[in-house]
Give the backbone structure.
Amino acid sequence: MQTPAAKIDTTEVGKVSATPRARSWYKHLSVQILFGVILGVIVGYVWPQSAEGLKTLGDLFIKLVRMLVAPIIFCTVVHGIASVGEAKKVGRVAIKAIIYFELVTTLALIIGLLLVNFWAPGASMHVALNTLAESAVKAPPRPLTFGQFLLSLVPESAVGAFSEGEVIPVLFFSVMFAFGLLALGSKGKPLVDGIYSIEQVLFKMIGFVMRIAPIGAFGAIAFTVGKFGPSSLVALGKLVGEFYVCCLLFVAIVLTPIAWAAGVNILQLIRYLAAELMIVVGTSSGESVFPSVMDKLRRLGIEESVVALVLPAGYSFNHDGTCLYWATASVFLAQAVGIHLSIGQQLALLATMLFTSKGGAGVAGSAIVVLATTLSATGLIPVASIGLILGVHSLLSSAFVPVNVLGNSLATIVMARMERAVDLPALQSKLEGGPEESQWPMDRLW
């Protein structure tokens, strides 16, 4: 006959065995990605001839994620809006978000212009205009007009919105579809539930893809170091150093106060998104972490309707880090070729950037294409001068893309606080506790 004490002991043993053990440090995704980046730097430096081959690893990872971005945007936006049941709230959030995006990106452009004028990294280059080769990056034959920009918001077809991979057309179609479901009322509920189920499947798929993120980051950073090497960093080191300081300054004097006003510690948010920020350092693609950032924001207790609307919109309209890059690169190129830009010309450049920056994709390399468009639109700086920074563009993008991801994540939190659409205890608890790497579906398979 078992004694009461024995029963208690058995229960306690059961409790102990049921308690999950702490995961080994090397099993955390952020640690694996960090190792991948460090190893990529070493391999790219020691064996630069392997750069082209290793680039495939980074490209493959980005391609796998991009394959899922459009359907994830569609499912999350449709389910988020349709589950709200109130079109007025959706419109209110959208208007607030657009105003916020404009204010913050304007601040980014101003900071970029001020610092590059003060630092003057290109003033000592003295590049003759007649020595400039034709740039490898071509601007569109004619700058995008406002009417063409409006037309670009609407996809040619529903299928085209997904096949082309552009965020804005997918977002536009998703919002239209969601409002159609809202108009159906209770008749549309089975379809909303079905879309939610598909959304869960897509996030499980992203969980599988994220397990190879360290390999993708390794390949991407090895290619950058192997192809351009430390020599490119030395040649244009002043520009690279100035821009890294510019990004840190923007986080310190713009994003940090915004986070404080929203009741968020910016350092805790950076730690929470550590894995995603390290991935984009290697891949230079904000899209490569879009699904995982969306999932992490929802885990902070933010309502799905806010996350589903603000984050995709931010990827299209809120390029904080890229605006820093455009402002810095434009004035740097002018300094390098000996073109003096007056205050009025720089303000005109800033106004043009506010327009050309909207709708830029989060795909690696798109920033330099938009830069070419801006230079072509203003006619102040020769587009061919872009060739001067091609060698260090990857180094610059390793700084501005993480700022984009951080800025869009913070914007989502700010909108959620303004709408009172966030579980504050859950938000603080998650940020203080750090990232939960075990959230990925692959981990639950073992």
